[in-house]
Amino acid sequence: MEKDVIIACDFAGKEECFEFLDKFKDAKPFVKIGMELFYAEGPSIVREIKARGHKIFLDLKLHDIPNTVKKAMAVLSSLDVDMCNLHAGGTISMMEAAVEGLTRPDGSRPILLAVTQLTSTSEEAMKSDLLIDKPIDEVVMHYALNAAKAGLDGVVCSPLEAAKVHNACGKDFLTVTPGIRFADGDTGDQVRVTTPAKAKEIGSDFIVVGRPITAAKSPVDAYKRCIEEFTN
Ligand code: C5P
User: Fold this and answer.
1) How far is the CA of 156 from the centre of ligand 1 (A)?
2) Separation of CA 106 and ligand 1 centre (Å)
3) pTM tops 0.90
């Protein structure tokens, strides 16, 4: 798959989401559907956005026993999403079960990514709450390697970690990176941010961009700017 910009459609319901997507006349951006929209609207939101011609990253971050994840992944695969994800913390056997569940009878399957440690988790919280004593960078890289071992296609990570992940897991192992802001834009609640151009330079394969596009005066222009900076 070629480098692309994925728009995080963090909307509360489908009216708002479709009103946003209607602004993109001919372009059919790759979109990310998260828990909020999916739980509000159910699987029909995936079918409807797919029918409009968009590629979909379904960001549900599964984490359960291997058998449950395998069966849930089979359902997501039949929804024909292009990309989905899980928590690497569910262990290698859970990730292997996910790949199995996701694989269709013809051998094809959506791209499967792992979330390593959430960027909202600090090293202190990892230590005190999860009893993980190692430095967070080491944990993130270990989880990425586990994901590669289990046969996953890549990880969701900070663009600032993309080069490191490629060094550890191979250049074809995908890095899908949120935390993107324009050089002249607001950072909002994101802390470790970078621009689309810098993300390209560090080696991100896909950038996930929410508010810099969804809250822009002209979302179409903001999307075009992302595409130009990131893919050209
Ligand atoms: O609006 P903004 O560009 O910050 O949106 C980023 C999107 O990426 C949101 O949907 C957010 O939940 C998601 N995300 C993130 N950081 C992660 C994983 C996902 O910002 N580590």
Assistant:
1) 10
2) 33
3) yes
